Amino acid sequence: xxxxxxxxxxxxxxxxxxxxxxxxxxxxxxxxxxxxxxxxxxxxxxxxxxxxxxxxxxxxxxxxxxxxxxxxxxxxxxxxxxxxxxxxxxxxxxxxxxxxxxxxxxxxxxxxxxxxxxxxxxxxxxxxxxxxxxxxxxxxxxxxxxxxxxxxxxxxxxxxxxxxxxxxxxxxxxxxxxxxxxxxxxxxxxxxxxxxxxxxxxxxxxxxxxxx
Length: 212
Known about the structure:
Shape: elongated
Oligomer: single chain
Radius of gyration: 22 Å
Largest sheet: none
Strand content: under 5%
Order of helices and strands: HHHHHHH
Number of strands: 0
């Protein structure tokens, strides 16, 4: 047991040293990225991430103002508080993100299974490349969903949220490939995250057709 305690103390000490040697600019840049992701998820999925006594928007504004005009002790205090607040918020946000991701994946997979059944009965006809595309998107959606859970369990909440978001994107791409209706709860995310990708893919395909 003593060696376990020693390892924990060593890891904690390394974290403190790394944080102390990181410039305020680097810390703020990392914090900005975390806040941006949380706000993006909040806006597109209409989730309300919990935070301490202030909202995410207020926290962001407070950091910006203090970093711009505050003195070193004030900047250190605000950054430390904000880093703690956003960490807690990310951890709490991972739970509804897992539920959203799992729900959308199950819907996309369920529709695909039904589509396969309809094809076997002769009710619909699917092109080979369309089938391959749908299956690939579903595989990636599940893979990202599983990896996001692993990141969450390891304590990397930022990467977990990023990966849950990617899983949602793949599930939405699958639904689009199936020509299925996008659920209302995901329409904003589809427009913001998936529409640009979808347009880019079809633009490339159209260019390829014209070249040939």
